[in-house]
Every structure is written in C-alpha cells, then in structure tokens.
Design brief:
CATH superfamily of chain A: Cytochrome-c3 Hydrogenase, chain B
Structural class of chain A: alpha+beta
Mean pLDDT of chain B: 84
Radius of gyration of chain B: 20 Å
Bound molecules: flavin-adenine dinucleotide, iron/sulfur cluster
Strand content of chain A: 5-15%
Number of helices of chain B: 5
Radius of gyration of chain A: 21 Å
CATH class of chain B: Alpha Beta
Oligomer: heterotrimer
Structural class of chain B: alpha/beta
Shape of chain B: globular
Largest interface: A-B, 46 and 42 residues
Largest sheet of chain A: 3 strands, antiparallel
CATH superfamily of chain B: NADH:ubiquinone oxidoreductase Nqo5 subunit
Chain lengths: ~400, ~170, ~575
C-alpha cells in the first residue's frame, strides 16, 4: 500500500497540481484495484467534489506479467500456450492472432477446414465473452439475476470448449498451420442444439434485463461517445459501432472463414451506455447466425499443415501486423522476427489500451461515482490486455 | 489499395512499400516523424492503432513503429523511425493523435525512450523500478527473477548435451 | 417507455420451480471430457527417456530423473517427473513425445498445503484415465524424411554407378531440423559421433563446422555417410512415429560439400619419436593410424593388397561406395604423414615378431578373410563361389560374365545383398535364399527394397540341403521351406526345416554369403599358446591389447559387429590405448 501512495504522489506531480487548477476542496478516492467492476485488477484514482468526478486517472499495472518480454525468450511454439493467457474472457483471439502472424511470416497455408474450425472457436468465444459482458454490466447496475443466468449459460459453451480443446478457459487449441485436433464426434450437432437454446435464452434475457425499464432509464445518455470523439480517440469494435460507425474488421479485411459468411454489421447511433450494450446484445444474435452458417458450410479435409520440428524452428526474417475483431475492439499482434528460433519482438495491441486509459478518463469526468463501474464495464475494458 | 499507395506517394512524396495482407510500411527520418504523421492524418489515416518499440541492440538503435489505419482505403501503414539507442529521444505525436499519449508513456517506461512534448510521461505500469527499462534486450529477466524470487533456472541443464561424456 | 417494460422483468419468476441446471457437488460430479488436459501420466516401460518433453516445456515443469529401469538399446534410465505447480497443462509435451508413453489424464484435483506434493512422479505401469493423448497425425515431429533422389532401377542395374544422388542443401537443412537433440544416437554409434551437434551445424548452413565435428570421432565420415550400418538411425526416436532422421545422408551431404579436408581441419602435429606399426589398411587400421598420428607418433601401415582400403575397397561394390570417396579420405589421412606400405603382407617375409621388435607397438586389423561354408552335399566345386572372394574378383577388375546365368545366393546380410545386386549388374537372373523371415534379415531395409526393385527374387524361409551336380557342374539345388520356432524367449526365432517338403531349383552358380571369420593362422604360428584366442577371435582388454605386450587388435577380427564404424571405433580406441600404454611404459 505504501508503494501505491508513492506512486500517487508522482501521478499528481506529473499531472499538474490539481488544487491550483480549481480552488475548491476535493477528495481523492481510489477505486480498485480489486476488480472495480471489470474483468481484472485495475485502479482509478478520482478527484471528486461531492459525488461529481472532476478528474479521473486510470491506474493500470496490477496484471503486468511481462508477456511480451517472456515471448522474446521462448521458442515460437512455446508461445502458443502463453498468448491465450493475455485475456481471460476471450483468450482465443490471442491464439488466432499469434498463429496468423506466424503463418503470414512463414507462408504456411492453413487448410480450409482449419480456417472454419478456428472461426467457430472465435465465434463461440465471442458468445461466451458477450455472456460475460451481459452478466457483468447487469451486475455493475446491481441487477444480479442476469449474471447468474448468463454465467450459467456461458458454462455450456465452456463445456463444448472442453470437449473440443481439452480445456475450459485457456484452450491452447490453435497453432500455426491450423488447429491441434479435429472436431470430436457429433460436435457440430451439439453446438447447433446449444445455439438453439441460446436463441431462446436471449429472449428471456430481454425480459429481465434488456427491455427492462430500470435498465433503460439507468443507461440512456450515460457516458456518451459521439462520432467525432470516437474517431479522435481511435475507438474500435462494438464501442465504435455504438457511436454509429459501421466498421467491423470481419467485414472490412476479412480473415479466416469470414469472407464466406453473410452477416450484418450492427450499429446504434447514440454512443451512450445503452447503445454499447445493445450493439452487443444484437450482435449476439448475429453471431449465432454466423455460427449456424459455419456449421453448414464446414468443409472436410485436413486441419493442420505442419511446421518444422518446434525445437529447431526458425521463422523467416520479417515483421507483420495482424488483427481481428474481438468483442472488445481491434485486437492486433505485431510480430518481428530476426530469423532465429525466438521472436525478436511481439507487440500485443489490446483494444483496452485505447479504451481503458484516455477514453475512460475523459468519459468519467463530470460523472457520478456510482457511474464509474457501469461505464468501465460498458466499454468492456479488459485490464490484462492493457498490462500484458 | 495499390492505387491509393501510388496516390499517397505522389501527394506526400513518401516511399511506401506495399507488404503482405493489408499492410504497407514506410521509413522516415526521426526528425520528419511529426510532419509525416500530420500529412498522413490529413490523407485520412484517422486511427492510431499502436506504437511499438523494437530494441536492435546489435545496431545500437531503437526502432519505433507507428501503426496507422486508413478506414476507407483499408490500409494499415507502419511508419518506422530509427533512433539512437544511447540518446533515445524523439518528438511526441500525442498532440496529433490523442491516444498516442498512452502508448508513448508505455514505451518510455519499458524502453526508456523520451518523447519531447508529451505532457504526461508519468509512471504507467511499473512500481519502484530501479533497474534499466525492462523491455530492453540487455535487461536479463532470468537473472532478475533469480535474485528476486530465488528460483532456479534450469535452461542450461535441460539443453546440456548428454553426449559430452564421450569427449 | 412502456408499462410493459416495467412488468417484463417479472417473467424471471417462471424459473422459480424449475430444476436447477448446476451440478450439485459433492452429490454429483462432472466427468471431464475425453480430451481433458489434467495431471500427467507416463508409461514407464514405453518411455525411452529421450527428454523431448523436458525440452519443449516452456515452464520447465518437467525434470528428467534417473530411475531404476532396464536400459535397453536406444533408451536411457531417465524418466520425466512433473512439477504441477509450474505446469500449465498445455499438452505440448504429450504432442512431442515420440513414443506416446506420456499423456494427460482426466484427473485435475490436487489440494495440499505442502508445495512439495505438487511434484508428481507420473510414471505408471498400466494405462489409466486417459485424457489428452498423442495423436499420430498431430505429432509435432514431422514424420517424413527429406526425399533423396535415386536412379531408377531399370537404369541402375545396367551399370555400377552410385544409386543415390545425394541431398541438396535445402533438403539437408530441412531434414536436420527434425533432430530432437536427445543424443540416443550418440550412445548407439560405435564411435559416438556427436550427431546432434553436426546436425545443428548443418541446419545453420555451417557444413565446415559439421565436418570438423564429425572428424573428431571418425576420419572416414564420408565413407560412413555413404555405406554405414547406421545404428544411430535405428534408435532414433523420430523413427517411432515415422522415418528416423536421415543421419547417414546428412553426413554424406556435409562431407561432400568439402573438397579438401586438409583445408578445414587442423592437423598440426607435435612430433614424438616413438614409431608404431599397423597391419592392414582397412577402416580400423586407417583410423587408428590417423588418430595416433595426430598425437605425434610416426606410423607405418602395412597392407597386403596394392591399394589401401580393406573390405571397403575389396568387398563393397562401387555402386554403393564410389572409389573416389575412399581415395579422398585416405588421401587426407596420408597427408598427415601416415606412411602406407602397400603390397606388403605380414606373416610371410616380414613377421609380426619383427614388427614388435622394431616398433614400440603394433596394431593388427587384418579383417575377416575366411568365409564360412554351408557344408551340404555337392557343395564343393569351382562354381560354388564365396561372396567375399566373388566381390573381391569383381572389385579388383577381374572379368566375370554372368549373362543369362541363374545364380542362387545364400544368406541374408549385407554381404548377401552386395552379392545379389552385383550378380544382377553382371547380367544374371538372381535368387536369394534366406532361412529366416524377412524381418529377421540383418540386411538393411532400404537395400532389400532396392534389390527387389532391381528384379531379384527373394526366397524367404528356405534352406538349401543339397547341390545336384551333373558332370561336375551345378544343375540344381534341393531346398526345403522352414518354419519359425519362437519358443526360446528373448532370442531370435529358430528356423526349423520342413524336411518332407523338398523342392528343387535349377541354377548354374551358387554364391555363399553366410558370414566370415578372421584368419589367424600366421599369428598362431608365430605366437603359439601365448596368444589367447576365444571363439576364433583374439582376446583383448579394454585398450584392445592382447595377451602379448604391445600387440593390439581391432576391426572385424576382434569385434562382433563387423562393420566399418565399429572398425573405426576400434581404431580410435586402440589409438587411445596405445597412447596410454606408451605413456605409462
Ligand atoms: C561385401 C561386403 C560389404 C560390406 N558392406 C558394408 C557396409 O555397407 N557397411 C559397413 O559398415 N560395413 C560393411 N562391410 C563390413 C566392412 O567392410 C568391414 O567391417 C570393415 O571393412 C572391417 O574393417 P577392418 O579394418 O577390420 O578389416 P578390413 O577392411 O577387412 O581390412 C583388412 C585389411 O588388412 C589387409 N590384410 C589382411 N591380412 C594382412 C596381412 N597379413 N598383412 C597385411 N595386410 C593384411 C587386407 O588386405 C585388408 O586391406 C561389408 C563387408 C563386405 C565383405
Ligand atoms: S518425450 Fe516421451 S519418450 Fe521422451 S522422455 Fe518424455 S515421456 Fe519419455
Ligand atoms: S503440459 Fe505443458 S506445461 Fe505441463 S509439463 Fe507438459 S509441456 Fe510443460
């Protein structure tokens, strides 16, 4: 705790002395770092007058595990089990991106079927992450029925993950060149029937949450990001779509199996808390449609093109940036190889880095303390990808 | 995309190389970075995606890579500059792209690169850090962990050739 | 905002009396999926202790520990022990394990306050609770070796040109990547060549370094690269899931990129005054001479034939081992100052005793020259040939025409293969009779395949019992099929002839290739009882010195393996032995 106070001091020094700016008394609050309403440890230092926030400073770093440094010291394959741990709610984007980057560098082709399987995994992860998000947002508003439901339903997706990949959260399933195992027997059937259940369930969620007056009243007009601001702050993903900009990486620079899939890019216009939740709520149904198409179109064949023996695997010199659309926004990997067995530099571009620091600080200014958690959650900030 | 690159080349006089996927890269002098980014922003590169620093310790340089995204033309542009590793200082771009502030903060902390003009280069993630910036190649993680947590590092033992007994 | 929106949330009440969908622990339990990645299990007897699992694990969760297990050929006594405090249950260790002995079970619960209990010995005898297991098609080791081009069979039977074209640089590099670096091959190689080291040099494109590493243990690396019996490949764990790493071809590739070994290998010598004699310029004699010369001794090699090389020159046909390869390596050996006196047979004019007097030590490696015979009726005659003398004749340039003749070769070793394929190249129709099953053949699998491609008929599990002659000439052979008797456990199955089922095959010539032994008559004459002999071979100590001081033996005449590497290994060991002997005298 002592260390934190020291840092607080330096934060104040760096960010100008507040008392000079405004000659009124304010309180300094520390929100977090124990899960302040988001999926991970993260802190916000507030200056508030009464209930009104006059300044907020994001204080990340509680989940720093030096992944980027670690990756420089491991052989290429050894990073596969590592990367997924960067993001808890949606780990699979990391696996997909890491593999895609290595594939682009080495020129290893991914078999069609593997592309589809990867897309299925990504979309399943998206559903799971959205269920997490719904539950979380509701919880930050003090509505605890939805989290109980949605976390329970998420577990059915995790069950399928367990069957497919052998693990529930960190799947370590994709590897450069494809995936680590083919689909188990009857997997698509089970997935299909789960999708039907989820379709029904989301309607039930509507009843208790999305259509509820309480929710609407509480969230409309809160934490507004308008179009210009969204562009200025380089906002991506559902947060951007909530501000009325129809932009989705899956559509614009389609990867894996997305070129073959029909889906709509969902937008809302208000850019407020409500829109951000509703974009995701509507995308949930869209993703179910995507998954149904993927199941229909799933080709047969190989699922992995091998790479050289991993202990002696050298990747060609070069650098590449790859990105995918995650539930939180643009997730990117920048991989630099110097031609040796270990990567020279891997830079993980998490969407929360843009959303979680400057944008959040801006949004919180002028809000009430009770709005902090909901706003943070509505942006779907994931501290582990800020810290890495 | 190629059309756009040619157009961009003509307008800005920059030497842009098209690369794999939706990418292109561009190398400029360290002094020109602000002007380049200003020009590019005018051309429609509105999204500042990220800023990466790479430590080429052998060549005594840090390479900074500014990642920009052009939404309409679907082009991811990597603007690269080399800076001297012994005097790592460069002008900030945080007034051109607001979010760059955070990224510069991180690079400052992890690599020790200074950004002249960035108003908020305050500590970001690390706490009570007294060593050299940790993402530099010459910072030895294993040594650090050994001292800090008293764990053993078995790398050498694991990769030690068993057949040396026949020498 | 509609009234409806206020009432809707009440719809949640409809679940009040529904059965909960959660698992009621501890009454109910969830069984993990079939692929679940839980706590490790390892079949202790199947595991070969290669240590690949330890190397791939990025968490250093696996430690190879010495255990009380039987160490067979191609295994070690090391077995994995897993620290589950470190493991992240990725299963990479399972996917790289070449034997499939290791898997992740479906157990995942382990609760303890004592961190030491997290270090688990996963070794078991029986399979249990299998979760994430090896799937051959997803093994991390590429199963196929780099393709080697070869001359098509119809073309190659017409001449004695080399069958294999050799690796190209990219393929050689790719192939060298397949090495796991376990070093089991080093244990298996008679002369313990540092295989993983030179494969590493090859994949880094540093062929010179690779060759330098090779020559530390084997001055006949190129020859071995061409015709070695490659026991290293037989134990290579990659061979369990696919084709073993092509160690031999890699060696051939690297050595052939070097034109003159002298340029890259340091052969500066600090002269000593002692002189050492070598009898026989086969691989054993040559490598002995090379290594002892490097230590500074003056070496004289005495060879019966007019060219050095021994069986490599006189036995192995040139389509397998081009003569320029032998010349290149011998040239390098003599360039260090080794003197070879050809056309000098020891035991006739010059005696071994004389050598022992004149020189500080004598190394004898005269090889196996006495062929064994079948001992069946009608066997003796000019048209019953011995494989080694037949090959000797062919290799020394004697004109032998077998066009249109029917030749029966008896035996199943590499000598038999050479005899059949040489006869085929001389125009004969060739049959091969072998008394055991094909899998029991000592001959190399690749050579068997090639021989068949060249149109040679294999008569497996047959035993000749009589040669029928007409006017002194062979007319036919009577033979019987055999059955295999597996009753003796742990031994090769015994062939049992089916004596009531006699068949005949018309042939013109018989070539016997059923083995050979050393000819020790000269030595016996000279030394009599003082030279200890057991089972036809002189008895030697670990320095390869026999019962007579200063007299060393090596190569085919002293070892059991009877191949080039073993001869080289003997030469190297004897060089060490002689050096020790002379230093301590
Ligand atoms: C047909 C055939 C094919 C083979 N193929 C292979 C193969 O593919 N791979 C493999 O690894 N091994 C092979 N071998 C075995 C290999 O050739 C021998 O194991 C090896 O050559 C033994 O070496 P050495 O030095 O002990 O004896 P040798 O090579 O037999 O050399 C002995 C030398 O001593 C000379 N000599 C004998 N008596 C005297 C004397 N009194 N005075 C002076 N000199 C004398 C001989 O002329 C000969 O040059 C093959 C053998 C044969 C016969
Ligand atoms: S990789 Fe497999 S065979 Fe090799 S030591 Fe490990 S468990 Fe044993
Ligand atoms: S499962 Fe992964 S972390 Fe665990 S021992 Fe195996 S390789 Fe190491």
């Amino acid at each position: 705790m002592k260390q934190k106070t020291e840092q607080k001091k330096s934060l104040n020094q760096g960010g100008k002395n507040m008392t000079e700016e405004k000659s009124i008394d304010f309180f300094e609050y520390f929100i977090g770092p124990q899960h302040p309403g988001i999926t991970g440890n993260f802190g916000v230092i507030l200056n508030a007058v009464g209930d009104e926030i006059i300044k907020a400073q994001a204080n990340p770093g509680y989940l720093h595990r030096a992944f980027e440094k670690l990756m420089e010291q491991r052989m290429y394959l050894q990073n596969v089990p590592l990367v997924c741990r960067i993001c808890v709610p949606e780990p699979d984007v990391n696996e997909a991106l890491y593999s895609m980057a290595i594939e682009t560098l080495t020129g290893i082709e991914v078999p069609e079927r593997a592309k589809y399987i990867r897309t299925i995994v990504l979309e399943m992860a998206r559903l799971a992450a959205y269920l997490f998000y719904f539950g979380g947002t509701a919880a930050t508003l003090g509505l605890y029925t939805l989290p109980n439901w949605s976390f329970g339903d998420r577990d059915y997706i995790l069950d399928l993950f367990e069957e497919l990949t052998g693990a529930r959260i960190y799947h370590i399933y994709m590897q450069p060149g494809g995936v680590r195992r083919d689909l188990p027997k009857d997997f698509t059937k089970k997935l299909y029937s789960l999708l039907q259940t989820l379709k029904k369930r989301i309607k039930e969620y509507d009843g208790i949450f999305f259509d509820a007056a309480l929710f609407k009243k509480r969230t409309k007009g809160v934490g507004v990001i308008n179009k210009d601001m969204a562009i200025e702050y380089s906002v991506t993903g559902p947060n951007l779509r909530a501000s009325g900009i129809a932009y989705d990486i899956r559509k614009d620079t389609p990867y894996l199996a997305y070129p073959d899939i029909n889906f709509n890019v969902i937008t809302e216009n208000e850019g407020d808390f409500y829109s951000r939740v509703m974009v995701r709520r509507r995308e949930f149904e869209e993703d179910i449609k995507i998954l149904e198409q993927l199941i229909d179109k799933l080709p047969s064949g190989e699922v992995w093109n091998r790479y050289p023996m991993p202990l002696n695997w050298k990747v060609e010199k070069g650098d590449v940036y790859v990105k995918v659309e995650s539930t939180k926004g643009e997730y990117g990997y920048y991989v630099v190889s110097d031609g040796s067995e270990k990567p020279r530099r891997i830079h993980v571009r998490g969407p929360s880095m843009t959303h979680g620091i400057m944008l959040l600080e801006k949004l919180l200014k002028g809000q009430r303390i009770a709005d902090i958690s909901p706003i943070m959650f509505s942006l779907d900030i994931c501290p582990p990808d800020i810290d890495r | 995309m190629s059309d756009f690159i040619t157009r961009l080349k003509n307008i800005t006089g920059l030497n842009i190389h098209k690369e794999k996927l939706y990418q292109a890269s561009l190398k400029v002098d360290k002094e020109k970075i602000r002007k380049t980014l200003l020009d590019l922003k005018k051309e429609g590169f509105l999204q500042f995606t990220t800023l990466t620093c790479i430590d080429w310790i052998e060549e005594k340089t840090f390479q900074l890579v500014y990642h920009l995204w052009h939404r309409e033309e679907k082009l991811h542009l990597k603007v690269k500059i080399d800076i001297d590793r012994d005097a790592p200082i460069v002008e900030t771009v945080s007034d051109i792209y607001i979010v760059a502030q955070t990224y510069e903060r991180e690079v400052k902390e992890m690599f020790g690169v200074d950004f002249k003009g960035n108003k908020r280069l305050i500590p970001f993630i690390l706490e009570d850090w007294n060593e050299i910036p940790p993402m530099r190649r010459d910072f030895n993680t294993r040594e650090y962990v050994k001292d800090m947590y008293e764990t053993e590092d078995r790398t050498e033992e694991i990769f030690k050739p068993r057949w040396k007994k026949y020498d | 905002m509609a009234w409806n929106d206020i009432l809707k949330p009440l719809s949640g009440w409809k679940f009040l009396f529904k059965k909960p969908h959660t698992i009621r622990y501890p009454k109910e339990d969830k069984i993990p999926s079939e692929r679940y990645r839980g706590i490790h299990t390892n079949m202790i007897d199947k595991c070969i202790g290669c240590g690949s699992c330890e190397k791939i694990c990025m968490n250093q969760a696996i430690t190879m520990k010495e255990m009380d297990v039987e160490v067979k050929e191609g295994t070690t006594n090391l077995r994995p022990v897993v620290d589950h405090g470190r493991c992240c249950y990725c299963g990479l260790c399972v996917d790289i394990c070449p034997t499939g002995s290791l898997w992740l079970s479906r157990d995942y619960r382990h609760l303890s306050e004592d961190i030491d209990t997290f270090i688990i010995d996963p070794n078991v005898k029986e399979k249990e609770r299998e979760g994430w297991q090896k799937a051959p098609e997803f093994s991390l080791i590429p199963p196929e070796r780099g393709k080697m081009e070869e001359i098509p069979p119809e073309k190659r039977v017409k001449s004695f040109m080399e069958v294999f074209v050799g690796y190209t640089e990219p393929i050689a590099k790719e192939e060298a990547q397949r090495c796991l670096g376990c070093g089991l091959c080093v244990d298996a190689c008679a002369t313990h060549m540092h295989i993983p080291d030179y494969l590493k040099a090859i994949r880094e494109g540093n062929n010179e370094e690779a060759v330098r590493i090779m020559f530390k243990n084997n001055p006949l690396s190129e020859i071995c690269g061409t015709v070695c019996t490659h026991f290293c490949e037989n134990v290579c764990p990659v061979g369990i899931i696919g084709e073993p790493v092509a160690i031999q071809w890699e060696k051939e590739f690297a050595t052939r990129t070097i034109e003159d070994y002298k340029k890259i290998i340091d052969t500066t010598i600090k002269e000593k005054k002692e002189r050492v004699a070598v009898v026989g310029a086969g691989p054993a004699g040559l490598s002995f001479a090379f290594y002892l010369r490097l230590k500074g001794y003056k070496i004289d090699v005495f060879e019966k034939y007019e060219k050095p090389g021994g069986m490599m020159l006189l036995g192995i046909p040139s389509y397998r081992l081009p003569r320029k390869v032998i010349e290149k390596e011998i040239k390098f050996i003599t360039s260090t100052g080794v003197k070879i006196h050809t056309g000098t047979q020891i035991g006739k004019k010059k005696t071994f005793k004389e050598l022992l007097k004149k020189y500080s030590a004598v190394f004898v490696a005269t090889g196996n020259t006495k062929p064994y015979t079948m001992g069946i009726p009608g066997e003796e005659g000019k048209d019953t040939l011995q494989a080694i003398s037949f090959l000797y004749d062919v290799n020394t340039g004697k004109k032998i025409d077998l066009k249109g003749k029917k030749v029966l070769v008896v035996g199943g070793g590499n000598v038999a293969m050479d005899a059949i394929r040489t006869s085929r190249r001389l125009g004969a129709d060739v049959y091969l009779s072998y008394r055991r099953r094909e899998v029991d053949m000592p001959a190399d699998e690749l050579e068997r395949k090639e021989a068949k491609e060249e149109g040679i008929e294999f008569m497996i599990q047959t035993l000749p019992i009589e040669v029928i002659r007409e006017k002194g000439k062979i007319k036919a052979v009577k033979y019987v099929p055999t059955d295999m008797d597996f009753s003796e456990k742990g031994k090769r199955p015994k062939p049992v002839p089916r004596m009531n089922d006699v068949r005949t095959l018309e042939v013109d010539i018989i070539i016997e290739a059923i083995g050979q032994g050393p000819d020790l008559t000269y030595l016996e004459q000279e030394f009599g009882e003082s030279l200890k002999i057991e089972k036809g071979k002189p008895v030697v100590d670990k320095n390869l010195m026999c019962s007579i001081k200063g007299l060393f033996f090596g190569g085919d005449m002293a070892n059991k393996q009877n191949d080039i590497v073993s001869a080289v290994a003997d030469g190297r060991r004897a060089a060490e032995g002689v050096h020790n002997y002379l230093q301590n005298k």
